[in-house]
Structures are given as C-alpha cells and as structure tokens.
Amino acid sequence: MIHFLRLIRSVNLLIIAVTMYSVGAYLDIVYADYHDGVMLIQTFNFFLLVISTVMIAAAGNIINDYFDVRADRINRPEGTIIMKHIKRRWAIVFHWVLNFLAFGIAIHLGLVLDTFWYVFIHLLSINLLWIYSMQLKRTLVVGNVVIALLTALVPVLVGIYYQDYFRTAMLEEAHPFHLNSYQFFPLYIGYGLGIFAFILNWAREIVKDMEDVKGDLVLKARTIPIVYGLQKARSIAIGFVFIVMTLTIPIVWFWSMGYIDGFALLPLVLSAISSIFTLKVLLKPINNKNLRTANIGIKLTMIFGMILPLFWMFQLLN
Known about the structure:
mainly alpha
C-alpha cells in the first residue's frame, strides 16, 4: 500500500484537494446570499468533482512513471517503484481504472449540472497526460507547458463549477447589478490562481528537468536544460519565480487600501518568504541537493498561494 501511495504522489493529490476546497469555501462565503445556507463544498457533486480531479492526477502520475522506468533507474534508483515494487501490468491497470472512474464521474456531473465542460476537461486531461508521459515530456518547452496548464486547470475547474451555479441563481433572482458585478467572479478567482500555478509549476518542471539530465539524455529528450544548458535553464526558472513575486503587488495594494486585513495576507507573506528562499537556493552552485531544495521551495510557494482564498474566507466571516 505504501508503494502505491508513493506511486500516485499522495501528498501532491492532497494539495490538489485542499486547493479546490479552499477556493470553494471562499466562493461559498462570497455568494452566501445565493445558496440558501447550503455551502456547495458540502455537496456530493462538489466532492465528486474533487475526487475525479484527484483520480486523473493519480493516473497521470502512474503513467508518467510507467514510461519513465529507464530514466528513473538513472536519476533516482532508490525512488523507482514500477517493476521494483509494483509490476508494470498492474500499474497500467491502476491507470485505466482511475481514468475510467474519473471520466464516468465527469459524465455524471455533465448530465446533472447540464454542462459539457467537465466531460471536455476531464477527457482532455486524460489524453494530454498520456501523450505527455509517452512523448511530450521529452519535447522542448511543449512538455513543460502542457503539465503547467493541467496544473492551472485545478482552480479553474472550481471557478467553472461555481460560476455556472451562481450565474443561474442570480438570473433567477433577476438582480442586474449583481449579475453584472459577480457573474464571472468565480472564473476570475480560478484564472488568477491558475496563472499563479502555471508559472510556478513551469519553473518547478524546469528545476526537475535540471535534476534529471542524465536520465533524459538516455531517452534522447530535448528539455530546456539539455538544449540550452543548466545555466540558462536556471535563469529561466529564477525569472519565473520572480514574476510570481511581482504578481503579489496588486494584493498588497488591496491591503494598503483596507480591503484585506493582515491575517488574510499571511499566506502571501509566507509565499514571498519561500520565493526568496527559492531564489537564494537557485543562485547557489547547481547540484542535485540544491535543486531538490529549490523544488521544495517552489512547491511551498505554490501551496501558500493556493490557500490564500481560505484566509480571505476567514476575513469575510469576521
């Protein structure tokens, strides 16, 4: 069981679930007047949306390791799970079972909520993760962009779910002001966090590629570190982390205007601290130890940013 949990990256899956519930909880409070006291994050359909997203991510992690056995034996032999602890045929069975269940849930959500978005996004994600693991991962830039986009879809999915629900509710209430002001707010929140996640995850993928150069050379991959060199790859990763730090400026402006209190800024402060820490590590000599530390720093920055709506929710409650 422990090997299976390591294979599907259970910690990363937990981060996905926490992110979705964090965004959902905030939007529930913002739209408290439109759901009759029933928070959507407590509904079974929202749980299904979260669990299906987690299943697709888990299946993607499995198929990624399935195609990367040769490289993993070189890059991280101690962390190789497929063939060492789990047979390849069982790995592929787990992959397809998870995807089948997730897609079935997407069809259910589409029928119940009268939208095609969940079927489209789930099917797109399943196929992109397969193609990414089989081919795109070793393609210059494209592989990084694909996996970063899929990561960005996590908060966007929540935005779509809430936008559809509350747009209908506001139309029924027939309040034009509310409709014009708040109709697309869930999507704005989802897209904002999605951009944040996209940039950071791209930086993290570059750092991971820097760690995996030896194994990727065996697979004849064309990653940024292999094509442009480790120094240029590091500069690009540093640039992405710095861009994320500049994205916090509008939120600081909201705080200075009194729209956000100090407590609601705590994740932003922690995110800035972890970003500075990451930049400091990336400026050190390039070796696997420093790259792993930078990887952790980027992941922490992403986590702090993704839970920001949860702290905004507490501010609204108070």
